[in-house]
Amino acid sequence: MQLLVLVFWFCLTITIIATAAATTNTNNIAKPGCQTKCGNVTISYPFGIGPNCSINPWFDITCNTSFSPPKPFYGSRELYNVTNSTFRMGNTVASRCYDQYGNITENIFAYTKMGNESPFTFSPLNKFTLISCSDLTIFSDPDQFTTGCLSLCSSPDDVIGDGSCSGGGCCQTSVVKGLKYYFTMTMSRTYGRDRSAIWKFNPCTYSFMGEPERFTFRGASDLIDPNFKTRVMATVPILMDWVR
Ligand SMILES: *[C@@H]1O[C@H](CO)[C@@H](O)[C@H](O)[C@H]1NC(C)=O
Ligand SMILES: *[C@@H]1O[C@H](CO)[C@@H](O)[C@H](O)[C@H]1NC(C)=O
Ligand SMILES: *[C@@H]1O[C@H](CO)[C@@H](O)[C@H](O)[C@H]1NC(C)=O
Ligand SMILES: *[C@@H]1O[C@H](CO)[C@@H](O)[C@H](O)[C@H]1NC(C)=O
Ligand SMILES: *[C@@H]1O[C@H](CO)[C@@H](O)[C@H](O)[C@H]1NC(C)=O
Ligand SMILES: *[C@@H]1O[C@H](CO)[C@@H](O)[C@H](O)[C@H]1NC(C)=O
């Protein structure tokens, strides 16, 4: 099997302050006088909707009533739910697509930045995922952490579609505790393979962070699925840890 999946990992200066275990309870209630629900989602203190409803501006949630039912947002990301120590929010997926000659036709980066002072970090229960047969992607907060995935395959037969990300076409790597910022950077790498042959079954490379339990790798059909990005954005949230 002409298949090489190489995961490399190098930690630059790791200056991560471990966040203490969450000791606050949300108890499923909002501050008195404040809205408890936005559509189907319970927004409990210290999060809050509207002026003076959250503990501080980091915990401000907006409720967009132009959706039915209304949807809560943290900044520009949809908020799916809040627990005593976590919340789940909408995702962003990076993509790099090629034409049959190997020219790049789309190159969209993904990043999420919480801000150094924010009480939120990406949960280490998330994973970074790369879907590709020809590329290398770096996931990095250059001040703290850099990791990456390389996934190469020569034919759809190299891709295992049993739901897990464990063979050709899919590569996952861990998220370090305490991370508040990441971006993706994809580099075209075929290591001698024929780009136009790969293009026929894998025209785009995708990369994202998110909850691995929510992502099912469907094998070769994912490599050619034009709705792949839409599906991941709609179904794979980013899990955040928070402390008051
Ligand atoms: C938070 O913890 C409290 C106390 O353990 C519990 O009553 C409450 O239901 C929890 N809230 C959520 C949203 O999990
Ligand atoms: C919201 O809750 C209602 C009633 O429980 C349910 O029918 C509906 O499917 C939910 N909508 C979403 C978007 O989860
Ligand atoms: C928010 O609370 C502060 C202090 O309690 C008060 O001075 C201020 O008027 C409140 N703002 C709003 C918009 O209610
Ligand atoms: C609510 O969502 C709609 C549709 O995405 C958007 O056009 C609008 O700007 C949003 N409103 C607010 C207050 O963010
Ligand atoms: C939050 O959402 C996740 C994923 O949608 C779900 O598995 C979990 O049960 C939800 N938790 C609560 C407290 O609603
Ligand atoms: C695409 O690649 C071909 C072959 O290398 C080249 O001749 C062509 O100019 C490229 N087209 C664009 C739009 O870059």
From TrEMBL:
Residues 1-22 form the signal peptide. It comes from the Eukaryota. It is a single-pass membrane protein. InterPro entries: WAK_GUB. Residues 34-84 form the Wall-associated receptor kinase galacturonan-binding domain. Transmembrane segments: none annotated. Keywords: Signal. It holds the Pfam family GUB_WAK_bind. GO terms for molecular function: polysaccharide binding. GO terms for cellular component: membrane. It is found in: Membrane. This is Wall-associated receptor kinase galacturonan-binding domain-containing protein. It comes from Tagetes erecta (African marigold). The lineage of its organism: Eukaryota, Viridiplantae, Streptophyta, Embryophyta, Tracheophyta.
